[in-house]
Structure formats: structure tokens, C-alpha cells
Design goal:
single chain; 334 residues; mainly beta; 20-stranded mixed β-sheet; globular
Length: 334
């Protein structure tokens, strides 16, 4: 009995010590985050630590309709944008604005936080101490809310980094040197974008891209990449267990497609020859490396029918009017 009681005491002591340790870590992380980020839920904006002097938020009233809070910062103070979002929709687009403006649709319960330091704008779904150890493992549901970011039309972004769980991402009319996207699910669309490097890590989120692109790194479990490109990229690397690479390229495109894995299919509008186990067209300039199983690679000419946009909806055709009934033949006289 004494040994059993002592064992229980030791076990409960270890449990209590573990809980105290977790609590201390949580409180310490909270203090760190409060020193690092500025909470913009209150109307009074206050400095909390290492924010730069140029990061003061300015209220706006005429933009971002149907939103609770709107903020703007000088565009010349921002070179990089980083977004950490849980669920909802993220829109990043150029517009007729002179500064960078951003807003969320619902800040009533878990308002976003942001900071600007050394030219990098960080925007988070909410304070990390609220979801540290919980949201990332799915123990709490923080709901969905949308984030809108508008930048001037002549704004050139060095890097756009998006880390999300289940979010629809729409980026349009932007010039970006590097995009780093890490997501679990959700459609991602890039419309009329000029991007040098596109690095995507997703589980099941399909990606559509239209514009110019120099390099692509696409890692996915079960997702597809559809690109309608007005230029000829330098390289594309795709690693997927069950996905699709669908490219529309200019008529003068040259490429080399290397496929490693099982059950991979290749089709092309361009004439190709086999060289060293790779499909080669023209000068072979664009290097496409497909690694994985159950993948399809389709390469189309720009003059042919463009690839379908994942998640896009088409306007249904108007129903045709039914034919008018024909009058019955008059009976013949007996």
C-alpha cells in the first residue's frame, strides 16, 4: 500500500510539474508576442515593443466596404508581405491607391494583429498566444474571416509569403520576385501576375496561374497546377503523389520533360522526341521535372484551347424556347 501511494504521489507530481511547465511556456510566449505585435482591436493604436516608427496605422472610411477596421501604411516602407491566416479568403491585388491598405471582415472576437519592421509587413489571423498549441492542432475552431490587401499599381513586392490552413487565395495584377505559399487546402488563383520564383507546398489545394513565371517548385499530396503563361519559364519541379501539371505555353516554346515514378501520363500539342528517357521539344530550354506517381502532364500551345481554371464557374446557357406545337391537320371531307 505504501509503495502504491508513493507511486501515485510521484506520478501526480510529474503531471503537475508538466502542467506548470506548459503554463509557464504559454505565459512566456504570450509576453513575447505582446512585445512583438501590436493589437489593433482597440481604436487607440499603441506601440508595444519593436515596431518601427513608420508602422503607425491610419483609419480609413471610404475603402473596404462592409468591414469593421481598415488600416493603411506608406507603400515605400514595405518590401515584403507575410500573411499567417487560418481560414477564409485572402485577396491581394493592386488598385488605385497610394498606400498599402488592408482589412478583415470580422474582428469582433479574434482581431488580426500586424507589425512592420525592416520593410516586412506581417499580418496574423489573431494573436499567436490564442492559438499557440491549440489552433495548429485543430483543438479550437476560430471560424473564418476574409483578409483584403490592396497595393498601389506600381508597387513591386520582393516577397509574398502566405501560410494558411484552409483558405482561398486570390492574387491579381502584381509583380513579385518570390512567392512562398504553404497551405493545406483551398484554391489559389494568380491572375495577370509577373513572378520570378513560385514555391508552393500544399496537400490538396489546386493552383491556377496566369501571367509570366520564371521558376516553379510545386510540392503536393493530391493537387494540380494549371498555368497559362505568356513567357517560357526556365524550370519547373513538381513532386506529387496524385496530381496534374497543365501548361499553356507560347507557340515557340522549347521544353524537356523528365518523369520519374509510376503511372505518369504525358500529352502535348507540341511535337516531341525521346532523348535519354525525356520528352524534348525544340531547344529543350524549359526543364520540367515531374516526380511521383499517378501524375498527368499536359502541355498545350497558346493558340489551342486554354486550360480550364480550377474552381471557376461558367455562366449557364440560356434555355432555348420550346418549339410551338403544330396545329393538327384538318379532317378530310368524306
Amino acid at each position: 500500500m505504501k509503495k502504491s501511494a508513493i507511486a501515485r504521489i510521484v506520478i501526480w507530481s510529474l503531471v503537475i510539474a508538466l502542467l506548470i511547465g506548459l503554463l509557464a511556456i504559454g505565459l512566456g510566449y504570450r509576453s513575447f508576442r505582446n512585445a512583438k505585435y501590436r493589437n489593433l482591436w482597440n481604436n487607440n493604436v499603441t506601440n508595444q515593443g519593436d515596431n518601427t516608427s513608420g508602422a503607425a496605422a491610419l483609419k480609413t472610411s471610404t475603402d473596404f466596404s462592409n468591414t469593421e477596421d481598415n488600416y493603411s501604411i506608406p507603400a515605400d516602407e514595405v518590401r515584403e508581405i507575410s500573411v499567417d491566416w487560418a481560414a477564409g479568403k485572402i485577396t491581394v491585388s493592386s488598385a488605385d491607391v497610394t498606400e498599402i491598405r488592408f482589412s478583415e471582415t470580422d474582428s469582433s472576437k479574434y482581431p488580426m494583429v500586424w507589425k512592420l519592421k525592416n520593410g516586412k509587413l506581417d499580418i496574423d489571423f489573431c494573436e499567436d498566444d490564442l492559438h499557440f498549441g491549440f489552433r495548429n492542432f485543430g483543438f479550437l475552431n476560430f471560424g473564418e474571416k476574409d483578409l483584403t490587401i490592396l497595393v498601389p499599381r506600381d508597387f513591386s513586392c520582393e516577397e509574398l509569403e502566405v501560410d494558411t490552413a484552409s483558405t482561398t487565395l486570390e492574387v491579381s495584377d502584381l509583380t513579385i520576385r518570390k512567392v512562398d505559399l504553404d497551405t493545406a487546402s483551398g484554391i489559389c488563383r494568380f491572375q495577370n501576375c509577373n513572378i520570378s520564383e513560385l514555391d508552393i507546398d500544399t496537400a490538396s489545394g489546386d493552383v491556377f496561374f496566369q501571367g509570366t513565371l520564371d521558376a516553379l517548385d510545386f510540392d503536393a499530396a493530391s493537387a494540380g497546377f494549371t498555368g497559362v503563361l505568356s513567357n517560357i519559364p526556365n524550370r519547373m519541379a513538381v513532386d506529387s503523389m496524385s496530381g496534374e501539371l497543365d501548361l499553356t505555353l507560347p507557340e515557340n516554346a522549347g521544353f524537356t520533360v523528365k518523369m520519374d515514378g509510376m503511372n505518369n501520363d504525358f500529352t502535348s500539342d507540341f511535337p516531341t522526341t525521346m532523348r535519354g528517357g525525356s520528352y524534348v521539344c525544340g531547344d529543350g530550354r524549359l526543364l520540367i521535372d515531374m516526380d511521383g506517381m499517378n501524375n498527368d502532364v499536359t502541355i498545350r500551345k497558346a493558340a489551342s484551347s486554354p486550360a480550364a481554371v480550377p474552381g471557376a464557374t461558367t455562366v449557364p446557357e440560356a434555355p432555348t424556347a420550346p418549339e410551338a406545337p403544330t396545329a393538327p391537320d384538318a379532317p378530310t371531307a368524306p
